[in-house]
Amino acid sequence: MQIKLTIFLIVILFTANIFTIEAQSSENVKVKLITSSIDIHPGESFWIAAEFEMLNNWHIYWRNSGDSGLPTTISWQLPEGFKVSKTFYPYPQILIEGNSATYIYENKVILFAEVTAPDKIERDSIVIKAKVNWLECKKACLPGSADLSKTINIDNSKPQDAPMNNFFVDQLKNIPIYKSDWEIYSRLYNSKVIILGLKPNWFDAADYQVFFYPYNDITFNHSADQNFKTNENGFELSVELNNFRIADPAELNGILVITESWEKGKQRKSLELNSIINN
Questions:
Q1: Which of 29, 37, 53, 31 is nearest to 148 (CA)?
Q2: Is 92 part of any domain?
Q3: Could you give phi then psi for residue 14, rounded to 5 degrees?
Q4: What SS3 class is residue 15?
Q5: How many domains does one find in the chain?
Q6: Segment 85-94, tens digit of pLDDT
Q7: Which domain holds residue 230?
Q8: Are both 209 and 117 inside the same structural domain?
Q9: How many Å apart are CA 48 and CA 84, to the nearest integer?
């Protein structure tokens, strides 16, 4: 009887651990799952995220790693009936080494996805899983991966209009927005893409910068200087194409990062572009 009880307890503990692997670490990178809510209600939306913490001078890569490296990816797994968005990446920083440029994250970064729960949930809790892959680099590079899971309780009472915690509100400012009062146009000119921005009436900053981060890793020359200049109507940004590109791009896909904000009264520095390039 004692042996059976011991085996039973081991099985229970092992099963519990399977569903509570919220954090894993390599020698240089720690990653964990976090959520915007402790409890969720049927029919509501909430945020899930993978939080990466890197040792000093180590980095991982954006969705487009640039001239080298590998993109950081997350495969989300949720119970049937739950819908998950694509992964949202905060804007990166550029690392230039010689004639090579990469798009990286250092210190800490959080990659997000939005989840919508079904209108009816007949259980007390759910398990969210994530398969995470990255490449961690300093002078040398090492591949990293983690299989994470997190249990979230279900609250079937009427949802309250509770504000999102300040941590998530602050971090969500770093992901791209998709609409802005700015008018953005682009055209091809002499192996370059010229991006034109027409500012709204409320924008009055005189000293600002804009930088383009492309989603495609072979179309643009990542290490080339981007020529930025302002005018009375807004700005012009010249981005050089890769000499070894297969063809000229027909669309402009990526993000524009501004030192000010794309939205009035808000700190939203990243604007996603998915638009036709004029010839």
A1: 31
A2: yes
A3: -65, -45
A4: helix
A5: 2
A6: 999 999 999 9
A7: 183-276
A8: no
A9: 9
